Amino acid sequence: MDARIGKVTEVESRPANNLLRRLSQADYALLAPHVTVEDSAAGQLLYNPGDDVQVVHFPCGPSLATFLVPNEDGRDVETILVGREGAVGGIVSEGFLPAYTRICVKFGGPFARIHVAKLEAAKLRSASMRNIFARYADCMLAQIFQSTACNAIHSIEQRTAKWILAAMERTGDESSVPLTHEQLATLLGVGRSYASRVLQSFKAERILDTRRGSILVRSRDGLRQRACLCNDAVKMHFEEVLRGVYPTEEREAG
Amino acid sequence: MDARIGKVTEVESRPANNLLRRLSQADYALLAPHVTVEDSAAGQLLYNPGDDVQVVHFPCGPSLATFLVPNEDGRDVETILVGREGAVGGIVSEGFLPAYTRICVKFGGPFARIHVAKLEAAKLRSASMRNIFARYADCMLAQIFQSTACNAIHSIEQRTAKWILAAMERTGDESSVPLTHEQLATLLGVGRSYASRVLQSFKAERILDTRRGSILVRSRDGLRQRACLCNDAVKMHFEEVLRGVYPTEEREAG
DNA sequence: TTGAGTCTGTCCACTTGTGCACACAAGGGA
DNA sequence: TCCCTTGTGTGCACAAGTGGACAGACTCAA
């Protein structure tokens, strides 16, 4: 993205996760010995409800995780997406508590991982590390609050457009989202046939095209017009809360 | 509730808030010099979006706070209720960040208050204090996650019943909830006429009665049957996460 | 190349919830 | 006491979303 000519900086050698990349060099040095990076495939479960939370997962590059709330019907409802802008697992709980939600890899790819205990130890040693993780936790909270309101009052059409935009922003893939209608419907908590119809109406307006198992985006602006403003509200909070605390200039995916 | 015969214990002299009451005596001693208790009336705004978060408010007794997410229409949508089981303001952000939501006193009453900075200082000095607040933050998070899912898939009837039960549990008032139909509709993010109709259907089944400006509960079990299970799921998480970390036996309001 | 399994587009009857309208009831202040 | 404001109950036309069904299309594996 903003690769500079000349020697690779220390920051650029870190995993492609904004949270990790924007730690100061001293702070990252506290974590580095404990960080591992490994791929996870789409569908893999990082946590199930009740699991002990022991590892923080940082999505890197195009990978994407999602928080699912199990339902009495056995249908999981998706709540928020987390990509390279953040991390999942113990961000708020600080670890060693039973997970409340299921956390699932939505789009596969690399994840940086670190034991919660190591992260907490580093946070105790560094005020700036505490600060940045508290700020991110606050942003994550804002994201969930916004989702709660969004689910209460916005139409399925708006939420569908919002979801596709959010996924694109996080993965960096500007043209397609690998998702069946069934999956889309399930994660929005709506009926499949209605989700299909919404996609059809977008297709009729040349906003997107459908392929078996994926959605091709033709007009990002068209999607923006159809989406509610929830993404933007959250993104503004990210920018406001994290502005200035990161040493580099890389943009946030809200 | 469980007042014991004999001398008043140190815990019972604290503000009637579960989070404060279940700190160890040593931990509470760190906070005590900075705690003030003052009444707030229903409708008072504790925070508006963008406000610097500097004070933690602990609802005591029957008082109740609520997180509202502003909407493009100017209508606020209610997300979660917080009563004597918890606190609002800086629980996750740890203070000095712009508030994302509006926080409003729903039912008036006493609130214990402490500066975030004082609380954070105490947390740095006491691991058990950190632990208990991280645990509560995790519970609050669970509550919001559940609300997000609930708004996605449960009917207005279920959510209405759930809301009334949640309010009753937190205030301790087993028989009535001071709320107009309009207020109920707004906080659920639904139309007023439909909210009225739901209340009428409950009335027809002798689950409740309506008075001008308040709802009288006649059958708590009837409400439970009509409500979704979201309250219970969250309550279980509260019990699991906070079990054992409190010295006293007082029950949680989930 | 042919299935088998999955995904997609569409139909239909039905339920849930909206938004507006209007008559009436309750209750506090002058 | 009466008025005026606010809250309540209900009717209606309509929009949004459900859930089941089914035919056809795509694709992978044998």
UniProtKB/TrEMBL annotation, chains A, B:
Q: Which residues form the HTH crp-type domain?
A: 154-221
Q: Where are the transmembrane segments?
A: none
Gene Ontology CC terms: cytosol
Superkingdom of origin: Bacteria
Q: Name one GO molecular function term.
A: DNA-binding transcription factor activity
Pfam families annotated for this entry?
HTH_Crp_2
PANTHER family assigned to the protein according to its UniProt record, in alphabetical order: CRP FAMILY TRANSCRIPTIONAL REGULATORY PROTEIN, HTH-TYPE TRANSCRIPTIONAL REGULATOR ARCR
Record-given protein name = Crp/Fnr family transcriptional regulator
Q: Which organism is it from?
A: Bradyrhizobium forestalis
